């Protein structure tokens, strides 16, 4: 039973709708627990090939729940260990697409950055306003943004805490697709269906190799890629893909 999200599927797409509109989907700990548990459930569900996380028209999520954090102390944070659950998102094997309309601020931006792909509205509002609260990003924001934009641009945005126009996020490769706000969901679903037709085992092996490239040396990354390339040859989908090519017909990938 979830209090802060709704989860459902459309064909083989698993959809998580953030559902706390009265506070612009501010993320309290229970809500993050629910999101991650649902991602893990979709990840284990053979009927699901791709996942989507979306908010509503006004907000993807306007950050961590400030009300919940206001009385935190260093020791309460140490004991609660609120970021352990965020780390579990990195263990999800299937593609995750964030659909961003409206605000994606602070922890909301970090949630989107934990997803593999981001489809955003042209007028979406990204940003890290934590500095204005006397703190800083805590769920990976400084790391994700620096890897995407380089330190100078990252410092400028995180130091000033000013909104980042979606167009800038797009130019730096943070956002994959930028469309009019009324078309965001449609575009994300189109992308999800496109991915759902791809061989699922290839997708997960590619996901692991690409994310590893961010941290590994070139040679270590190439070694990992090679192992994953070999593993792909254990799949039925490799046989189907190559056979379909020789028979000049479209392949049907079954995820085996
Ligand atoms: N937390 C709690 N409540 C929020 C939050 C939030 N982050 N954002 C909005 N709300 C609430 C407002 O208090 C308001 O409630 P009420 O109606 O009871 O007064 C309601 O949502 C609607 O908001 P506004 O009336 O303010 O709507 P506006 O359209 O005027 O403004 C803004 C929208 C600009 C987004 C504004 O609400 C705002 O500045 N929100 C705070 C944004 C922010 O600072 N985010 C960063 C939070 S800190 C963080 O994310 C740290 C991440 C670390 C990881 C977390 C791990 C747990």
TrEMBL record:
GO terms for biological process: fatty acid beta-oxidation. Belongs to the enoyl-CoA hydratase/isomerase family. The keyword Lyase applies. Keywords: Lyase. InterPro entries: ClpP/crotonase-like_dom_sf (IPR029045), Enoyl-CoA_hyd/isom_CS (IPR018376), Enoyl-CoA_hydra/iso (IPR001753), Enoyl-CoA_hydra_C (IPR014748). PROSITE patterns: ENOYL_COA_HYDRATASE. It comes from the Bacteria. GO terms for molecular function: hydro-lyase activity. It comes from Ornithinibacillus bavariensis. SUPFAM superfamilies: ClpP/crotonase (SSF52096). This is Enoyl-CoA hydratase.
